Amino acid sequence: MSLGQELAPHLPFLRRYARALTGSQQHGDAFVRATLEAIVAAPDDFPRDVDARLGLYRTFHAIWSTANIEEDPGAGSGFEDAEGIAQARLARITPLSRQALLLTAMEGFTPEDTGYLIGAEADEVERLVAEALEEIERQTRAEVLIIEDEPIIAMDIETIVRDLGHTVTGVAVTRDEAVAQARAHRPGLVLADIQLADDSSGIDAVKDILAEFSVPVIFITAFPERLLTGERPEPTFLITKPFQRSTVKAAIAQALFFDTATVPA
């Protein structure tokens, strides 16, 4: 099997991580492209002493950690300079605590593997994760709209959201209901399933909502690969079903981290 074939199954999930890390599909995908270009340019430098997924993320982190975000870290890859508030938040995401949290909670790496990726010992990774969680506790609270047609999952998400200190404005099960609830009580965050009760789409519901006002969105799906191709406008934040509580917590914190209305100064 060629190196390209080994890496292909892991690319959607690297896109998910990169988007969450940068708060942008455009920026995240540009770092992924830069990673692939580096591998193609120097295949002999690819880590072969670990599995392909770990080597892929390791190469990504080598590029991420050395990129000068004030310039163009994806030169030749369609990457445009970040501006204004997005640039400031991209700079603030670089601390290892955020990386450690996303790698463990969202990507499912062990503390040992996470340490390999960011250049830290396992116990240091655990300290960094605890540091990130403490930061989340200080994060400004948001009002959250949940779009989910499965009652058990909706209740689970609602419990997680409330335990984090956020307020749930409502739980919608169809596209029309979601739009109506958003209009009645403007949310500060939307968590949306892809497939809804009446065969309507959570993506279409979100498009309708975003046409009226800006709000950070986290999508929830059992088929993440379909929304992580990098070939069209796709979600920045994505949770895979079945999800862990820690995954939802990390995704919510990261989405709010990049939101201009809720990120603390």
From TrEMBL:
In its keyword annotation, does this UniProt entry include Phosphoprotein?
Answer: yes
Q: Which residues form the Response regulatory domain?
A: 143-256
Q: Identify the SUPFAM superfamilies for this entry.
A: CheY-like
Membrane-spanning residues:
none
Record keywords? Phosphoprotein
From the UniProt record, list the coiled-coil ranges. none
- This chain's protein is named Response regulator
